[in-house]
Design brief:
Elements (H helix, E strand, L loop, with lengths): L21 H21 L2 H8 L4 H29 L2 H15 L2 H4 L3 H29 L5 H29 L4 H6 L2 H14 L6 H6 L6 H4 L4 H15 L5 H9 L9 H21 L4 H20 L4 H29 L5 H30 L1 H28 L2
Helix pairs in contact: 1-7, 1-9, 3-6, 3-17, 4-6, 4-9, 6-17, 7-14, 7-16, 12-16, 12-17, 12-18, 13-16, 14-16, 15-16, 15-18, 17-18
Amino acid sequence: MSTSSMGPPSHTASGGWRALPAGIWALGFVSLFMDMSSELIHSLLPVFMVTTLGASVATVGLLEGVAEATAAITKVFSGTLSDYLGKRKFMAVLGYALAAFTKPIFPLAQSIGWVFGARFVDRVGKGIRGAPRDALVAEITPPAMRGAAYGLRQALDSVGALLGPLLATVLMIAFVGDIRKVMWIAVVPAFIAVALLIFHVHEPEGVSAEYAVRPPLTLADARRLPLRYWLVTLLAAVFTLARFSEAFLVLRAQSVGLALSYVPLIMIVMNVLYAGAAYPAGAAADRVSARVLLLLGLAFLIGADLVLAFAASPIAVFAGAALWGLHMALTQGLLSKLIADTAPADLLGTGFGIFNLVSGGALLLASVIAGSLWSTRGPAATFLAGAAFATVAAVGLMIFARRRRAGG
């Protein structure tokens, strides 16, 4: 396994996306259908909470932050358990099924408590499946193609995240703004995702036998994670502080006068860029320096935040969402690859779990800050704060890179 977390990779991928294992494609389509379901709901949920259930924007920020932090905390336990059991697929099926069964609760919700409960359980499902799935990607992919593998899975995930809001927009128009009726449609792709995972994804041969003789994992096992792994995890946390929940993109669109039926188009624009750039960015991560891609991703995030801070029309919000999508494409798959390259093979699940715990805690803090700023100072202050965090992250990354080169 490569241990170079921040420099140019030593391997070159060959064969392109066609050479990737069939299991990567299957996992990608599982992500596609589940994200289609989730984003169909989530593209409408912030507006639904504010306009239908009477929640404040600060409440939306708190709910989103707690939900994502819940997923992150759960990933630690599910990742470690999958390391011990060697049952990545079982844990993934459990997580996806739990998320699927929460989908009918959203259209039935009569108060913010219903939404909070459903969102909480849904994110528990995400937490259960996340680390085992990411570890499974690393186990079934040759090391020299991991960037491409994570990029492809993320690209298909983003296609689902694109199709969800697109379907939401069409259905909102067809159902004359009936949000509850639109949300019911999200149940179908969620269960398709679970079926695909059960029948078309398989554990790598020999892995279960290897784990069957392992002693129980302890806290001391986490100490075997190398310094490079912890540096990548810390870097991801700083990135996440600069990027709060995407619910604020939807609320920004509404704040500049975009009609309710067209609000999901914001997520469509973001995910078009995310889906289109994720695989090329992942493949590039197998060939070029991670620092270059990370700095470029931060540059797009700073640009997005500045555009959104000063937006006075829906067109400006669409532009900001597009830049946001490019940032996600350049950074998310790359950070997963860096974790896979720096964590020991027998601690992949634990490594991804801790990584997501730290990132989730940062997202909770970022979303709470964003919601508070929005309620007290307005949308512009929220996005300007994001730009400031991203600038600090970029400067810190450049200083780290310069000192590392100076130290030889």
